[in-house]
Automatic annotation (TrEMBL):
Residues 24-274 form the EAL domain. It comes from the Bacteria. It comes from Holtiella tumoricola. The chain holds residues 495 to 770 of 770 of the full protein. This is EAL domain-containing protein.
């Protein structure tokens, strides 16, 4: 728009903003090439049961950019979504998981692997079919896969998304709602979308006051009444684990048990109990 257009007001050149925008555009460019440059890797964080042994694992994407170095998911997932790059990245993640965690490659009891799935991926009408093909290619049991979605997915009420989630669930894939408590946190859609697992966000346990712990207890009880399992995120201390365990949470995830680790480190962790 014209700088001196009085109806639009004055627009000043902002060098900081300009630099930021340039950087964002450049990050988006780098992201588009990152897959072919083999810059992504996956870290795995154990999710433990009441006995503190590993029951599930969450796959977390890592980007080691040639240009920017290590970039945290919070600094690039949004751009991968905006550019649509998340679709091919997402398929790559599923393929890696199916390759590494199918029954043939697991010696011990099979662990369920949670994968974060963005709304953009679920808007792809071919999503379910593609997932099915990849899983079958590696003889991966659908029951060993869990897709973690966020509240924005269900709030949008998009038909393609709804159909994909329904079809994935019918295949036997577990659906978890991630970060519960950070958004609207309405219980209304939990049944409509056939969600199997509720992941309560770590914000509730960061504050150790009874008020917040009571909220966790109530969310946990309602989720159970709705037939869902509960994972509590961000458990960092033994004290937190004890309180949440007594409260009746089913699964626990957090630095107290393990940080996200490489596949090699994970193999090491799953062949012995977690040391404390
Ligand atoms: P999320 O799905 O809620 O993942 C949990 C995040 O909490 C991870 O951050 C994990 O490292 C961190 N975390 C785990 N335990 C603790 C703890 O005890 N204390 C604290 N302070 N943090 C803990 P990370 O790996 O940085 O990922 C951030 C977010 O990026 C994820 O949140 C998820 O929304 C998104 N993300 C990560 N990988 C993927 C992916 O493959 N696809 C998509 N679409 N999103 C992803
Ligand atoms: Mg998650
Ligand atoms: Mg989460
Ligand atoms: Mg999160």
């Amino acid at each position: 728009c014209k700088k001196n257009d009085p109806s639009k007001g004055l627009i000043f050149f902002n060098p900081m903003l300009y630099a930021t925008n340039l950087k964002v555009e450049d990050i988006k460019m780098e992201l588009k090439q990152a897959l072919s440059k083999d810059e992504f890797l996956i870290h795995y964080q154990p999710i433990v049961g009441k006995d503190q042994s590993i029951h599930k694992i969450e796959a977390l994407l890592r980007w080691r950019s040639e240009k920017y170095g290590f970039v945290a998911p919070s600094d690039f997932i949004l751009y991968a979504e905006e550019t649509g790059a998340i679709i091919s990245i997402g398929y790559w993640i599923i393929e890696e998981i199916c390759k590494n965690f199918n029954p043939l490659s697991q010696t011990d009891r099979p662990l369920q692997i949670s994968i974060n799935v963005s709304p953009i991926q679920l808007m792809d009408i071919h999503f379910t079919q593609t997932i099915k093909k990849i899983a079958e290619k590696y003889s991966m049991d659908f029951s060993n896969l869990c897709f973690e979605i966020t509240e924005s997915v269900v709030l949008d009420e998009n038909m393609v998304v709804y159909d994909n989630l329904h079809a994935l669930h019918n295949l036997g894939i577990t659906i978890a709602l991630d970060d519960f408590g950070t958004g609207y946190s309405s219980f209304n859609y939990l049944r409509k979308y056939q969600l199997d697992i509720l992941k309560i966000d770590r914000i509730f346990i960061q504050d150790s006051s009874n008020k917040y712990l009571n909220i966790v207890k109530n969310i946990n009880d309602i989720a159970h009444l709705l037939g869902m399992e509960v994972i509590i995120e961000g458990v960092e201390t033994k004290e937190q684990f004890d309180v949440l365990n007594n409260m009746g949470c089913d699964y626990f995830q957090g630095y107290y048990f393990s940080h996200p680790v490489t596949l090699e480190e994970l193999k090491h962790l799953t062949t012995k109990s977690i040391p404390h």
